[in-house]
From TrEMBL:
Keyword annotations from UniProtKB, A to Z: Coiled coil, Cytoplasm, Synapse
Taxon lineage: Eukaryota, Metazoa, Chordata, Craniata, Vertebrata
Organism, as annotated: Cyprinus carpio
Pfam families: WH1
Disordered as annotated region, ranges: 124-150
PROSITE patterns: WH1
Protein name according to UniProt: Homer scaffold protein 1b
Keyword Manganese: no
Family membership noted in the UniProt record: Belongs to the Homer family.
Length: 366
């Protein structure tokens, strides 16, 4: 346990997303594993030189996926991506709030996948270098307490991840502590088998403790992050409460301003109503003015007609006066002629009377 306490798994990138897993029965439908967006983080274990994706919903780990070189992160839409984890026998899906967050997560996935590939290659090189001397040393070959390092001894936490030889350092220390007894035990096969069984049990316990420690470390880191997030949220809420309190202290001023605004609005409404009534009155006056203009035009036309008729009558009157004057002249001439004729007639009548009288005297004389 002393050597495992040096494991430091640190979060290197965090984001928030809705977490889904593929339905194990249909292998088609997505099942949400979080009720709301949760923190999804990339972790790096400097001791084991591995990268993991971890997400907690409360105290429950809903994602615990170790990145391997053969993994692929696929963008299926603008805000959704997925990757398959063959060790966990599932497919994880993440729904992000924006395309930018999805692109950033995919970029980090590719970066850490490449880092995992390079780490695996270096680990295999170290394993090959470490196994070469053991093959050249007969003592190591025949010692039952120093078996060759295999992939089975380098898998922890049930993930099957390849790690460096430093992960089995507790076992190496145990082997070095037991190595002085090897010559004595080599002559007893039963004792060798017993110690091999003990060593296997210690290795198994050590692997379990290492996995538990790593899981606890990841949980502690995640809880610290969540606590920091909660503290930030609490600080934000405190600031909001302070703002609301300062706003509540201005409530009276706001109410006074509101009252003044209401009064101003009422005055404006009264003014608007008066203006509307004035507009109605002006419209009526305009209509009356239009009617008066129409009547004026009609009267003007009638006046013009009357003037023309008056001119015609004046011309007729002048003609009649001229004719009357001419008639009067004719009448005066006729009167004079008649008077002359009457004087002549009177002279003739007088002459006829004298002639009658003379004829009567003649008749009486004869």
């Amino acid at each position: 346990m002393g050597s495992n306490s040096g494991n430091q798994e640190q979060p290197i990138y965090s984001t928030r997303a809705h977490v889904f897993q593929i339905d194990p029965n249909t292998k088609k439908n997505w099942m949400p594993t979080s009720k709301h967006a949760v923190t999804v983080s990339y972790f790096y274990d400097s001791t084991r030189n591995v990268y993991r994706i971890i997400s907690l919903d409360g105290s429950k780990a809903i994602i615990n996926s170790t990145i391997t070189p053969n993994m692929t992160f696929t963008k299926t839409s603008h805000k959704f991506g997925q990757w398959a984890d063959s060790r966990a026998n599932t497919v994880y899906g993440l729904g992000f709030s924006s395309e930018h967050h999805l692109a950033k997560f995919a970029e980090k996935f590719a970066e850490y996948k490449e880092a995992a590939r390079m780490a695996k290659e270096k680990s295999l090189e170290k394993m090959e270098l470490a196994s070469s001397p053991s093959q050249e040393s007969p003592a190591d070959i025949h010692s039952p307490l120093t078996p060759p390092v295999t992939a089975d001894l380098c898998r922890i936490n049930g993930t099957g991840d390849d790690v460096t030889l430093s992960d089995v350092s507790p076992n190496s220390m145990l082997q070095s502590d037991l190595s002085p007894t090897t010559p004595t035990l080599a002559h007893s096969p039963a004792t060798n088998k017993h110690w091999e069984a003990e060593l296997a049990a210690l290795k198994s316990n050590n692997a379990k403790l290492t996995a538990a420690l790593l899981e606890s470390t990841a949980n502690v880191k995640q809880w610290k992050q969540q606590l920091a997030a909660y503290q930030d949220e609490a600080e934000r809420l405190h600031k909001r409460v302070s703002e609301l309190e300062s706003q509540s202290s201005q409530t009276n001023v706001i109410k006074s301003q509101k009252t003044e605004l209401n009064q101003t609005i009422e005055e404006l409404e009264c003014t608007l109503k008066a203006k509307e009534e004035e507009m109605v009155r002006l419209k009526e006056e305009v209509e009356n003015a239009k009617q008066l203009q129409t009547q004026k035009d009609e009267l003007t036309k009638k006046l013009e007609d009357t003037d023309m008729r008056n001119k015609e009558l004046e011309e007729q009157l002048a003609d009649l006066e001229q004719r009357l004057e001419s008639s009067q002249v004719d009448q005066e001439s006729l009167r004079k002629n008649l008077k002359t004729l009457l004087e002549i007639l009177d002279g003739k009548i007088f002459e006829l009377t004298e002639l009658r009288d003379n004829l009567a005297k003649l008749i009486e004389d004869s």
